[in-house]
Amino acid sequence: GQRVYSRGPPPVPCSRVVGVVRASPLTDVVEMPHVALFVPVGSQLGSYSQSPTYIIVRVTPSALGRVSAEMRRVLHEAFPAAELPDVQPVTARVGTQLQPWKLGASIFSAFGVLSLIAAEVGVYSVIAYSVTLRAHEIGVRMALGAQHRQVISLVLSQGMRMTFVGLAAGVALTLLLGRFIASMLYATTPRDPVAFAAAVGSLVVVTVIACVLPARHAARTDP
Question: Which of 110, 129, 147, 218 could, after both became Cys, cross-link 138 (CB 3.0–4.6 A)?
């Protein structure tokens, strides 16, 4: 409902604002927002402005080929002297701009997976070795009447307590230091619950395996 006046040359008449759109990139994916006016091509204000470089059409992916051919036909009929228009999906235009970001995301993901694997191997090795060292103790418990499930339950509860202490410290440090990488993330946060659940869940599973397998092996030993 407000009026906007854009200075020339040539002088542009006042025009009524019919809507405000959110800030969005126009040519580059990572460009900074800047002031832009969208005007109808056939209006008085549009006649004073520069001809549009792009015509953007919203279309479903399944109809892309049909719509592209129809756009070429219609534009050629409207402007027969002009060269054939270049019709391409937005993904093709911005694909090259996204390549460095995709490469960086892949590298970060690879390092994250390697770190998680290293943590899982370390947890399994330490817990499995500690259970193996208790083979004599487990044998004594079996000789005194302990059952297999009791031995496994004991070892598992002790191993899980130690693991949960480490997980609590790790989660606390991650929440504390995550803000330093917040600017490098896109469409997510350093406190993404899915990522935390995946990391914690995988380490818990590894801990259970590291406790149960050596404990079962030790429980089968003849006291």
Answer: 218
The distance of Cα 212 from the centroid of its chain, to the nearest Å, equals 34
Element (H or E) spanning 4, and its range? strand 3-4
Q: How far apart are CA 61 and CA 100, in angstroms?
A: 25
d(CA 52, CA 41): 8
The answer to whether residues 145 and 223 touch, using CB atoms and an 8 Å cutoff, is: no
> Which tokens belong to 48?
């004073």
- The contacts of residue 193 (CB under 8 Å, 6+ apart) are none
10 close to 48: Cβ distance less than 8 angstroms = yes
The tokens for 98 are 């996204």
Q: What is the pLDDT of residues 72-125, one digit of tens each?
A: 898 888 888 888 888 888 878 788 888 888 898 899 889 989 999 998 999 889
